[in-house]
Amino acid sequence: MNIQIFGSSKSFDSKKAERWFKERRIRYQYIDLPSKGLSPREYLAVKQKVGFEALCDEKSKAWEKHFMAYITPEAREQKLLEYPELLRTPIVRNGKEATVGYCPEVWETWE
Questions:
Q1: Does the bond joining 90 to the residue before it have cis omega, within 30 degrees of 0?
Q2: Helix axis angle, 73-82 relative to 40-50, nearest 10°?
Q3: What does DSSP assign to residue 30?
Q4: C-alpha distances in angstroms, 85 versus 25, 29, 58?
Q5: For residue range 32-91, what is the model confidence (pLDDT) as tens digits?
Q6: Contact criterion met (CB below 8 Å) for 7 and 93
Q7: Total-model pTM
Q8: Do residues 1 and 94 make contact, with C-beta atoms less than 8 angstroms apart?
Q9: How far apart are CA 109 and CA 77, in angstroms?
Q10: Domains of the chain, with CATH numbers?
Q11: For the chain, which end, N or C, has fewer CB atoms within 10 Å of the first or last residue's CB respectively?
């Protein structure tokens, strides 16, 4: 397995995801989403698996701050790449598989 967790230190779900993998002694790579972000290719791979709507954190303060509800879908995608705080966390990848949020029932099938 090649697990990557894209998370935020302020996200409780990111901490829970890390704990879930640690408890099972599954090695993973943690990437701090606010500082590193997602590369365009990583973004496209995750979007293809989970869909655009699943990636958007519409409850975040950043969503309102960047007026995401009022811009076109193309502009939204560009903003997601520019401002990683607009993404839901954690984003967990295992090769070509991906999940958004805390999804231990899916991760168990990866083992």
A1: yes
A2: 130
A3: E
A4: 29, 19, 11
A5: 998 988 889 999 999 999 998 898 888 888 888 888 888 888 888 888 888 888 899 999
A6: no
A7: 0.88
A8: yes
A9: 30
A10: 3-110 (3.40.30.10)
A11: C
